[in-house]
Amino acid sequence: MPISVLLVDDEPLVRAGLRAILEAQPDIEVTGEAGDGAAVVPLVRQLRPDVVAMDVRMPLLDGIEATRAVLRTVTDPPRILVVTTFEADEYVYEALRAGADGFLLKRSRPAEIVHAVRLVAEGSSLLLPASLRAMAADRRNDRARADFERAALTGREREVLRLMCRGLSNAEIATELVVGAETVKTHVSAVLAKLGARDRTQAVIAAYESGFVTPGTVG
Q1: Widest CA span in the chain
Q2: How far apart are CA 191 and CA 187, in angstroms?
Q3: pTM of the entire structure?
Q4: pLDDT per residue over 119-129, tens digit each?
Q5: What does the radius of gyration of the chain's CA atoms come to, in whole angstroms?
Q6: Measured between alpha carbons, how far is 117 from 79 in angstroms, rounded to an integer?
Q7: Which of 7, 20, 30, 106 has the most CB atoms around it within 10 Å of its CB?
Q8: Contact, 97 vs 118, CB < 8 A?
Q9: What is the DSSP secondary-structure string of the chain?
Q10: Strand ranges across the sheet with 51-55
Q11: Phi, psi for residue 122 in degrees, rounded to 5
């Protein structure tokens, strides 16, 4: 089955451009569009997309609140890919903290857009750019540190989290640690559960905000 995508952006030209890029791929189809975050929850329930590509700044309901609404009210919610003009943006960071699975710059090349949709659809995470890693590190605080310590990750789980912070896939982590892919999958699931993270992106943010990793310690 192709990856189904819902496009949410208040600029029709942006939606048209994304649609043209994505529908040129045999494994991706755009099943719907919306011009504001307020329309997202009803459309997600109706269309059941695999991925929502969502603008972060919209007039009625922005991408942060729309992300929260989807994750709060929709059973088995889709993956959410935030689409934005600016990389170092507080809105983007808060959308990721709210549960978005990754973000994409509107100026990205077509191949990068397609790659991001595929990665997010399969549950992999995109490497946070240096600006957002620095933003997360700047938010280091005692509460995040205490929450991280309470999670009591094992030594192997900590190794896996460090590699997740480098943006490695499960297969790449397996190669790095010389273990099986299923073993890595088990460790990743344990890391997410212990940190209370919806996905890998939230786990990476928790790693930075707790001080477990810093921008200079990952590739």
Answers
A1: 49
A2: 6
A3: 0.75
A4: 889 877 665 66
A5: 17
A6: 9
A7: 7
A8: no
A9: -PEEEEEE-S-HHHHHHHHHHHHTSTTEEEEEEESSGGGHHHHHHHH--SEEEEES--SSS-HHHHHHHHHHH-SSPPEEEEEES-SS-HHHHHHHHHT--EEEETT--HHHHHHHHHHHHTT--PPPPHHHHHHHHHT--HHHHHHHHHH---HHHHHHHHHHHTT--HHHHHHHHT--HHHHHHHHHHHHHHHT-SSHHHHHHHHHHTTSS-GGG--
A10: 28-34, 3-8, 51-55, 79-84, 102-105
A11: -85, 0
**138-142, 153-157, 198-202, range with greatest mean pLDDT:** 153-157
Q: What is the pLDDT of residues 142-178, one digit of tens each?
A: 888 999 999 999 999 999 999 988 888 888 999 999 9
**Alpha-carbon distance 211 to 144, whole Å?**
8
- Which residue in the block uniquely carries the two structure tokens 């919806």? 198
pLDDT score at 104:
83
Q: Is 101 exposed, middle or buried (0-12, 13-18, 19+ CB in 10 A)?
A: buried
Total residues found in the chain within this entry: 219
Per DSSP bridges, beta strands 79-84 and 102-105 are parallel
- Name residue, tokens 């504001």: 36
Could you identify the residue written with the tokens 């269309």? Answer: 47
